[in-house]
Design goal:
By secondary structure, the chain is an alpha/beta fold. The protein contains 8 helices and 18 strands. The chain has 2 domains: 3-115 and 239-308, FAD/NAD(P)-binding domain; 118-235, FAD/NAD(P)-binding domain. The chain has helices spanning 16-27, 61-75, 124-129, 137-140, 156-165, 185-192, 248-255, 277-299; strands at 3-12, 32-35, 79-80, 86-90, 93-97, 101-110, 114-116, 133-134, 148-152, 171-175, 197-200, 203-211, 214-221, 224-230, 232-235, 239-241, 263-265, 307-308. Strands 1, 2, 3, 4, 5, 6, 17 and 18 form an 8-stranded mixed sheet that branches. The structure holds flavin-adenine dinucleotide. Flavin-adenine dinucleotide binds next to helix 1, helix 5 and helix 8.
Length: 309
């Protein structure tokens, strides 16, 4: 039988957006539950975060994630580490289902971030299932030692991944579709200074073939077919909002937000958002404060103990 829980505010997501919102809500004495697959989120991929105020030397993404994980524990944020499978609107608010738990909340804050875009080529799924292709570097890093790595993409994330592996992998190729990069100039300069990173321009991936302990990439280079052989590839061609698990009603509100809603979307899940930690944290703080205001001023609510049945 499922665990059942009623709460005033439920938050879905364990990245900087929901971490910030939940700490602020707890400080205001609001009854909350944070549900997430894990704590840390996408920033665990970052080689060095240099645009966060308070870290003059920058901070490694994983270390930053660990620090707010500790902060959630210290603040006493009730956390359920489970994947949310469905979310729907019900008469008294929202119903959130994981495999083991059902939560009913009056307010719902969703900060489930983004998911990596796929190449959409033959062999991609097989390569992923064989452990030859990864989208998130924090899952891949342990397999990259002394290996020949291909990174598909030409933006900040592709360049950041290459820098992250420079002292671990033997050789790193950044494989770009065109002769242009959208990466920050500072990352381009750093990549150009590293001898084991090469940039392959005008390489369009046609298909992937996992073969023994290698992966073969069939590529079109300026109209000419070509084959690349790598030990492992990372795909970094962009990300899209992560809301596939939400019901139609919730997605409809995501597309057409209502003015007096009790449903919020924060951080990278937002459309056309600039995807940055400080923006996600700002979103989280703003929505937490709006929620506290609504709850305390309009409803005269000042905290309640959670009901479990
Ligand atoms: C390589 C790389 C480098 C970056 N470098 C920087 C940088 O230097 N500076 C900067 O400001 N930003 C950087 N970013 C961007 C930054 O990571 C994001 O903007 C930030 O993490 C967004 O926070 P978020 O809380 O909105 O979402 P996320 O961090 O993506 O968190 C989403 C959370 O939701 C959870 N989740 C998702 N689906 C479900 C589900 N169905 N059920 C339960 N939980 C779920 C996830 O497990 C995760 O905990 C970088 C990103 C990448 C990929």
């Amino acid at each position: 039988m499922k665990n059942k829980l009623i709460t005033k505010v439920a938050l879905i997501g364990g990245g900087p957006a929901c971490a910030t919102a939940s700490i602020q809500l707890i400080r205001a004495g609001i009854d909350i539950v944070l549900v997430s697959k894990e704590i840390g989120g996408t920033i665990k991929n970052a080689n060095l975060v240099e645009n966060l105020i308070g870290y003059p030397e920058g901070v490694v993404g994983k270390d930053f994630a660990r620090s707010f994980q500790l902060q959630l524990v210290k603040a006493g944020v009730p956390t359920i580490l489970e994947e949310v499978l469905t979310v729907e609107q019900v008469s008294n608010g929202f119903k959130i289902n994981t495999a083991e738990t059902e939560i009913i909340s009056e307010y719902l804050i969703i900060g489930t971030g983004s998911t990596p875009k796929k190449l959409d080529v033959e062999g991609e799924k097989e390569a992923f299932l064989n452990g030859k292709l990864f989208y998130e570097i924090y899952n891949a890093k342990q397999f990259t030692e002394k290996k020949d790595i291909g990174i598909i993409g030409s933006g900040d994330v592709a360049y950041d991944y290459a820098l992250n592996l420079q002292n671990i992998a033997n050789k790193i190729s950044i494989i770009c579709r065109t002769d242009k990069t959208s990466s920050l100039p500072i990352l381009q300069k750093r990549v150009n200074d590293v001898i084991n990173i090469v940039i392959l321009k005008n390489h369009v991936i046609k298909n992937l073939v996992p073969q023994d302990d290698k992966i073969i990439l069939d590529v079109d280079e300026n109209g000419e077919p070509k084959t690349l052989t790598k030990d492992l590839i990372l795909v970094a061609i962009g990300r899209k909002p992560n809301y596939a698990f939400l019901s139609e009603g919730i997605i409809s509100e995501y597309n057409n937000p209502k003015i007096d809603s009790k449903l919020y979307f924060i951080g990278d899940i937002n459309k056309n958002n600039f995807r940055q930690v400080s923006i996600a944290m700002g979103d989280g703080m703003k929505v937490a404060m709006e929620t506290v205001k609504k709850i305390t001023e309009k409803e005269g609510y000042h905290g309640a103990s959670r009901k479990v049945w």
